[in-house]
Every structure is written in C-alpha cells, then in structure tokens.
Design a protein that fits this description.
This protein is 38% helix and 23% strand. With 186 residues, it is α+β, with helices and mostly antiparallel strands. The longest helix is centred in the middle third of the chain and has 16 residues. The termini are far apart.
Length: 186
C-alpha cells in the first residue's frame, strides 16, 4: 500500500485500487461540481483505450459518501525513472528505447490526449519498448495545443536525468519526425 496526502494506492493480486478521500465540505463541493478524481481516472483509462494507447484497464468505479475509488488491472514493469536508472545503462543500443518512448508521446498527442502530469514516474516500463500510462486522472481529451506538447515534453525531459544530450535530441527528433521540416531521423 502507498499512501499519499490526497490518495491511497493498494495492490491486490493483479489489480490496483486507487482511492481518493472526498471528506470535507470543499472536496465534496469540488466533487459535486467537477466529478471525482476516480471518475476522471476511469474516463482517462477508457479514453486512452478507445484511442489505442496503453493504459491500465479500468475494472470498476465506486463512488460514495466521503470517498471514491477506481480499480484497474495491474501491469508488470517499473516506473520509467527507475527503469532508466537501472536498465537503460545496460542497453547495448538505446535507439529502440528512445524511439518507442518518443513514439508513445507523439501518438498520445496525435490522438487528441494530453497528460497534464507527464513525469517519468507516471509511465510504467516493461522492457525497452513497452510502456503504460499511469495517473490517468490527469489525462484530458482535446486538441493538443503547442503549449501542451511543450509542457509534456519538458516534464518528461526533466524527469529523466540519466539520458545524455544526444539521447534527448534523438528523442525530440523522433517525436517530431512527421513535422515537414525535420523529416524522419533514421
């Protein structure tokens, strides 16, 4: 179990249970007006699935007085920041890893989804080319503005200090490979 100030995460067998308290008048009012964080995570999981983007499968959404929770299927792997520290230095060729990560973010944005907290610990890595988005309550579905893309790339860039300047440049070029001036970096 992992407890944070605003939520509690528990793993039971092959499922994650993420619970948000809504106690207190301000949180209850916010949940009544905007919906609960659990509902936002539920919508995020299903919205990414419809767009064929990797996310934990939402199993159940439960909302009641004082709390809301979402149950989703657990995925193997480790957070991307830990994967980069432990496994990326051992890779013989980093190109497939960097290309897959850049393609993941490019597909997220191209399919009309914005992750407002695109840090490395909000992406689960299970091998150099298999990723899953986490913290789905921070996903929004809309036309991706340039500022959204820059913010997401900057958050990811800041959260991966083990990458070299050449790695970062390659990843950016791969992300922008469909832009007319840059072309395919391969």
């Amino acid at each position: 179990m992992k407890s944070l100030d605003s939520r509690r995460i528990t793993r039971i067998d092959d499922a994650w249970i993420k619970e948000w308290p809504s106690a207190g008048p301000l949180r209850a009012l916010r949940a009544w007006i905007r919906g609960t964080r659990a509902r936002a995570a539920w919508i995020g999981a299903h919205g990414l699935a419809v767009r064929r983007l990797p996310a934990p499968e939402g199993i159940a959404l439960l909302e009641g007085r004082g709390r809301a929770l979402v149950i989703s299927r657990a995925h193997p792997g480790k957070p991307l920041d830990r994967y980069c520290r432990e496994d990326v230095p051992a890779l013989r060729d980093r190109r497939p890893f960097l290309d897959a990560l850049a393609a993941l973010v490019r597909h997220l944005h191209a399919r009309g989804a914005v992750h407002r907290d695109l840090k490395a610990n909000n992406i689960l890595a299970d091998g150099p080319t298999r990723f899953v988005f986490l913290d789905l309550e921070d996903v929004a579905f809309r036309r991706v503005r340039r500022a959204d893309a820059i913010r997401g790339l900057a958050q990811l860039n800041a959260a991966l200090p083990v990458l070299t300047r050449a790695d970062r440049w390659r990843m950016l070029r791969r992300y922008a490979s469909n832009w007319p001036l840059l072309g395919d970096p391969r």
